[in-house]
Write a structure and sequence with these properties.
Strand content: 5-15%
Helix content: 40-55%
Number of strands: 5
Largest sheet: 5 strands, parallel
Radius of gyration: 17 Å
Amino acid sequence: MKYHLALDLEFRRNPYRGLYIALEGIDGSGKTVQVPRLREFLQKEEKEVITTREPRKEGLIADIINRLLQGSINLPKEAFQHLFTVDRFLHHQELVVPALKVGKVVITDRCFWSAIPYGMWEMGERFDYDKKKMLPIAQKLLAMQCQFIVPDITFYLDITPEVAISRVLKKSDAKEIYEEEHILEKVFEGYQWLIQEFPQEFFIIDARKSIEDVTLDMIQMIKQHHKF
Protein backbone atom coordinates (compact mmCIF):
# COMPACT_ATOMS: atom_id res chain seq x y z
CA MET A 1 0.00 0.00 0.00
CA LYS A 2 1.33 3.44 -0.96
CA TYR A 3 0.97 6.52 1.23
CA HIS A 4 1.34 10.11 0.07
CA LEU A 5 3.24 12.38 2.45
CA ALA A 6 3.98 16.07 1.91
CA LEU A 7 7.04 17.59 3.55
CA ASP A 8 7.46 21.29 4.36
CA LEU A 9 10.99 22.32 5.30
CA GLU A 10 11.96 25.31 7.40
CA PHE A 11 15.66 25.88 7.79
CA ARG A 12 17.10 26.94 11.12
CA ARG A 13 18.48 30.47 10.74
CA ASN A 14 21.41 31.89 12.66
CA PRO A 15 20.06 33.73 15.75
CA TYR A 16 23.51 34.66 17.09
CA ARG A 17 25.86 37.64 16.75
CA GLY A 18 28.44 35.74 14.74
CA LEU A 19 28.60 35.30 10.97
CA TYR A 20 28.44 31.82 9.46
CA ILE A 21 30.03 31.41 6.00
CA ALA A 22 30.20 28.16 4.00
CA LEU A 23 32.01 27.26 0.80
CA GLU A 24 30.39 24.57 -1.32
CA GLY A 25 31.21 22.85 -4.60
CA ILE A 26 32.45 19.62 -6.08
CA ASP A 27 35.88 18.25 -5.22
CA GLY A 28 38.53 20.30 -6.99
CA SER A 29 36.50 23.53 -7.05
CA GLY A 30 39.01 25.36 -4.83
CA LYS A 31 37.23 25.56 -1.48
CA THR A 32 40.22 24.53 0.60
CA VAL A 33 42.40 27.15 -1.09
CA GLN A 34 39.87 29.93 -0.53
CA VAL A 35 39.07 29.37 3.16
CA PRO A 36 42.38 30.80 4.52
CA ARG A 37 42.19 33.69 2.05
CA LEU A 38 38.77 34.69 3.38
CA ARG A 39 40.06 34.31 6.92
CA GLU A 40 42.92 36.72 6.15
CA PHE A 41 40.51 39.32 4.76
CA LEU A 42 38.16 39.09 7.75
CA GLN A 43 41.00 39.25 10.24
CA LYS A 44 42.15 42.49 8.59
CA GLU A 45 38.61 43.72 9.28
CA GLU A 46 39.34 42.99 12.95
CA LYS A 47 37.01 40.01 13.11
CA GLU A 48 37.77 36.94 15.21
CA VAL A 49 37.65 34.08 12.74
CA ILE A 50 37.46 30.32 13.11
CA THR A 51 37.99 28.10 10.07
CA THR A 52 36.75 24.55 9.95
CA ARG A 53 35.53 21.85 7.60
CA GLU A 54 33.01 19.05 7.19
CA PRO A 55 33.63 16.27 7.64
CA ARG A 56 36.13 16.99 10.36
CA LYS A 57 39.60 15.47 10.43
CA GLU A 58 39.61 14.58 14.14
CA GLY A 59 37.23 12.71 16.43
CA LEU A 60 35.86 9.18 16.66
CA ILE A 61 33.23 9.55 13.91
CA ALA A 62 35.53 11.74 11.83
CA ASP A 63 38.18 9.03 11.90
CA ILE A 64 35.74 6.46 10.52
CA ILE A 65 34.57 8.89 7.82
CA ASN A 66 38.10 9.71 6.70
CA ARG A 67 38.99 6.04 6.51
CA LEU A 68 35.90 5.54 4.35
CA LEU A 69 36.87 8.43 2.11
CA GLN A 70 40.35 6.98 1.67
CA GLY A 71 38.85 3.59 0.86
CA SER A 72 40.61 1.76 3.70
CA ILE A 73 37.33 0.45 5.17
CA ASN A 74 34.00 -0.36 3.53
CA LEU A 75 30.43 0.39 4.50
CA PRO A 76 27.28 0.57 2.38
CA LYS A 77 27.21 3.96 0.65
CA GLU A 78 23.66 4.44 1.89
CA ALA A 79 25.10 4.67 5.42
CA PHE A 80 27.60 7.43 4.66
CA GLN A 81 25.30 10.41 5.21
CA HIS A 82 24.17 9.04 8.57
CA LEU A 83 27.80 9.12 9.71
CA PHE A 84 28.26 12.60 8.25
CA THR A 85 25.16 13.79 10.12
CA VAL A 86 26.44 12.50 13.48
CA ASP A 87 29.79 14.18 12.91
CA ARG A 88 27.99 17.38 11.84
CA PHE A 89 25.88 17.35 15.02
CA LEU A 90 28.99 17.10 17.19
CA HIS A 91 30.72 19.75 15.10
CA HIS A 92 27.89 22.24 15.61
CA GLN A 93 27.55 21.45 19.30
CA GLU A 94 31.27 21.68 20.05
CA LEU A 95 32.47 24.44 17.70
CA VAL A 96 30.03 26.20 15.37
CA VAL A 97 27.27 27.27 17.78
CA PRO A 98 29.60 28.30 20.66
CA ALA A 99 31.64 30.45 18.24
CA LEU A 100 28.58 32.14 16.73
CA LYS A 101 27.14 32.84 20.19
CA VAL A 102 30.14 34.99 21.13
CA GLY A 103 30.19 36.87 17.83
CA LYS A 104 32.95 35.07 15.94
CA VAL A 105 33.01 34.46 12.20
CA VAL A 106 32.92 30.77 11.28
CA ILE A 107 34.14 29.83 7.80
CA THR A 108 33.56 26.21 6.86
CA ASP A 109 34.78 24.13 3.94
CA ARG A 110 31.43 22.41 3.25
CA CYS A 111 28.31 22.32 5.38
CA PHE A 112 25.07 20.35 5.41
CA TRP A 113 24.28 21.36 1.80
CA SER A 114 26.86 18.82 0.61
CA ALA A 115 24.69 16.01 1.97
CA ILE A 116 22.18 16.46 -0.85
CA PRO A 117 24.24 16.04 -4.06
CA TYR A 118 26.66 13.53 -2.53
CA GLY A 119 23.90 11.68 -0.69
CA MET A 120 21.76 11.34 -3.80
CA TRP A 121 24.69 9.85 -5.68
CA GLU A 122 25.41 7.47 -2.80
CA MET A 123 21.81 6.27 -2.84
CA GLY A 124 22.15 5.35 -6.48
CA GLU A 125 19.84 7.95 -7.94
CA ARG A 126 20.47 9.41 -11.38
CA PHE A 127 19.79 13.12 -11.71
CA ASP A 128 18.17 12.71 -15.11
CA TYR A 129 15.31 10.85 -13.40
CA ASP A 130 12.05 12.71 -13.29
CA LYS A 131 11.24 14.92 -10.33
CA LYS A 132 8.86 12.43 -8.74
CA LYS A 133 11.73 9.95 -8.32
CA MET A 134 14.22 12.53 -7.09
CA LEU A 135 12.13 14.35 -4.51
CA PRO A 136 11.66 11.51 -1.97
CA ILE A 137 15.44 10.99 -1.78
CA ALA A 138 16.13 14.72 -1.50
CA GLN A 139 13.42 15.15 1.14
CA LYS A 140 14.86 12.33 3.20
CA LEU A 141 18.32 13.88 3.10
CA LEU A 142 17.08 17.40 3.80
CA ALA A 143 14.97 16.24 6.73
CA MET A 144 18.18 15.02 8.39
CA GLN A 145 19.75 18.45 8.04
CA CYS A 146 17.04 20.80 9.32
CA GLN A 147 18.43 20.61 12.85
CA PHE A 148 21.53 22.55 11.72
CA ILE A 149 21.93 26.30 11.32
CA VAL A 150 21.90 27.32 7.68
CA PRO A 151 24.91 29.51 6.82
CA ASP A 152 24.35 33.26 6.53
CA ILE A 153 26.35 33.15 3.30
CA THR A 154 26.92 30.05 1.19
CA PHE A 155 29.32 30.42 -1.74
CA TYR A 156 28.98 27.80 -4.46
CA LEU A 157 32.26 27.58 -6.37
CA ASP A 158 31.05 26.72 -9.85
CA ILE A 159 33.35 24.64 -12.01
CA THR A 160 32.93 21.84 -14.54
CA PRO A 161 33.79 18.25 -13.59
CA GLU A 162 36.44 18.20 -16.34
CA VAL A 163 38.35 21.13 -14.85
CA ALA A 164 37.83 19.84 -11.33
CA ILE A 165 39.29 16.42 -12.07
CA SER A 166 42.33 18.02 -13.75
CA ARG A 167 42.96 19.86 -10.48
CA VAL A 168 42.39 16.75 -8.38
CA LEU A 169 44.99 14.84 -10.39
CA LYS A 170 47.58 17.47 -9.44
CA LYS A 171 47.03 16.92 -5.71
CA SER A 172 49.98 15.62 -3.76
CA ASP A 173 47.91 13.92 -1.05
CA ALA A 174 45.87 10.73 -1.35
CA LYS A 175 42.85 10.82 -3.62
CA GLU A 176 39.43 10.24 -2.02
CA ILE A 177 36.71 7.93 -3.30
CA TYR A 178 34.60 10.79 -4.70
CA GLU A 179 37.44 12.14 -6.80
CA GLU A 180 36.58 10.30 -10.01
CA GLU A 181 35.22 12.13 -13.04
CA HIS A 182 32.08 10.00 -13.44
CA ILE A 183 31.21 10.62 -9.77
CA LEU A 184 31.94 14.34 -9.97
CA GLU A 185 29.66 14.59 -13.01
CA LYS A 186 26.73 13.19 -11.02
CA VAL A 187 27.51 15.29 -7.95
CA PHE A 188 27.78 18.36 -10.20
CA GLU A 189 24.29 17.63 -11.54
CA GLY A 190 23.10 17.27 -7.95
CA TYR A 191 24.42 20.71 -7.05
CA GLN A 192 22.69 22.20 -10.11
CA TRP A 193 19.41 20.69 -8.92
CA LEU A 194 20.02 21.98 -5.39
CA ILE A 195 20.72 25.54 -6.58
CA GLN A 196 17.66 25.47 -8.81
CA GLU A 197 15.45 24.39 -5.91
CA PHE A 198 16.97 26.81 -3.34
CA PRO A 199 18.25 29.77 -5.41
CA GLN A 200 18.13 32.28 -2.57
CA GLU A 201 20.54 30.23 -0.44
CA PHE A 202 23.56 30.40 -2.73
CA PHE A 203 25.97 32.99 -4.12
CA ILE A 204 27.41 31.47 -7.29
CA ILE A 205 31.11 32.17 -7.86
CA ASP A 206 32.88 31.40 -11.13
CA ALA A 207 35.68 29.13 -9.86
CA ARG A 208 37.34 28.99 -13.29
CA LYS A 209 38.83 32.41 -12.53
CA SER A 210 42.21 32.91 -10.93
CA ILE A 211 42.57 32.26 -7.20
CA GLU A 212 42.87 36.00 -6.59
CA ASP A 213 39.75 36.87 -8.60
CA VAL A 214 37.66 34.20 -6.87
CA THR A 215 38.68 35.64 -3.50
CA LEU A 216 37.81 39.17 -4.62
CA ASP A 217 34.37 38.05 -5.86
CA MET A 218 33.58 36.50 -2.47
CA ILE A 219 34.86 39.52 -0.55
CA GLN A 220 32.65 41.78 -2.67
CA MET A 221 29.61 39.63 -1.85
CA ILE A 222 30.42 39.72 1.87
CA LYS A 223 30.80 43.51 1.83
CA GLN A 224 27.50 43.92 -0.02
CA HIS A 225 25.53 41.87 2.49
CA HIS A 226 27.33 42.54 5.80
CA LYS A 227 28.61 45.89 6.99
CA PHE A 228 32.11 45.88 8.50
